[in-house]
Amino acid sequence: MAQEDFTAELESELEQRIMxxxxxxxxxxxxxxxxxxxxxxxxxxxxxxxxxNNGDILSITQPQVIADIHxxxxxxxxxxxxxxxxxxxxxxxxxxxxxxxxxxxxRKDPEFxxxxxxxxFLNELAWEMNVKGSQLARKMADDIGTDTGVKRYVAGxxxxxxxxxxxxxxxxxxxxxxxxxxxxxxxxxxxVRGLIEGGCDILMIETIFDxxxxxxxxxxxxxxxxxxxxSLPVIISAAVGLGGExxxxxxxxxxxWNAFAHSKPLAIGLNCSLGPDLMRxxxxxxxxxxxxxxxxYPNAGLPNPLAPTGFDLEPLxxxxxxxxxxxxxxxxxxxxxxxxxxxxxxxxxEGVRGVAPRKxxx
Length: 362
Fold this sequence. Notes:
Elements: H1 3-16, E1 19-20, H2 25-30, H3 36-40, H4 58-61, H5 63-76, E2 80-82, H6 90-97, H7 110-117, H8 120-148, E3 153-158, H9 181-198, E4 202-208, H10 211-228, E5 234-238, H11 253-260, E6 267-271, H12 276-289, E7 293-297, H13 315-327, E8 333-334, H14 342-352
Parallel strand pairs: 1-8, 2-3, 3-4, 4-5, 5-6, 6-7, 7-8
């Protein structure tokens, strides 16, 4: 399908109803009780660093688990599932596979990250993670779409990285950056190509803590589209703090829209960081200024180590909050971030079903 036709297809759906995103990959992975041995698999059994917290590696070492998670979210009512590729770049994966120079009195700097970008192992790993991550979601989307007669979509997840372009970690040198814009751009270029190769329908630049990092991701998307003569709809989603600003670059949601409007995203929205009650005023502000569709997938409340999912809100709570968002005309896409299981998404889907979507200002 030509990109123009595909975008028109999505826009036609969005004019009629609120589309449902998925929930939290990390939260749901933990419910499978995997240990370090399972995360490593045979392939990485001898890795020097622990891999249990590297959820993206499971697309390679435990693909049946990731496929099952996608299947459960689609069955719960998700129209769109994100790929398990939040940290699938060489820069992010270096945290798990390369010795940290700070452990021996050194520091991470552009010279260090240039070696990361030239590391064949990390480049091949990032490529495989993105291609396989996309293929796993693609198969479940196609299988369940065929079984139910309701088309399902795959969104390639492009996360914020473990480094910042906006802030210096050196209190003695405010101009110092551990990495350059061009280095971040190159890491994202590799990720975007892999996601497209694996069969994504949408690209999602998400959980934006640092707007300049996200700018690099947006430039990478545009460059790959131009070079490879391909184009997909793009969703931009930021994580904001209690004051309504991106947490590293401190950009308010109105400024966020102004910074990304030129890229003509299919949607812009907020995710992670806050529960729906705390997110609401900032979502309302974004809805007022945005000239495109709005997405929201908040955490299931604030962290609570005593709760089964690690977060306070149960499915019924998320259903009521997201239903109210929808009834207030704030939503075109609805889902959940940290703490949201397939059961939460099922409840969210029930809450927004039949509620008219937000009308985009024209």
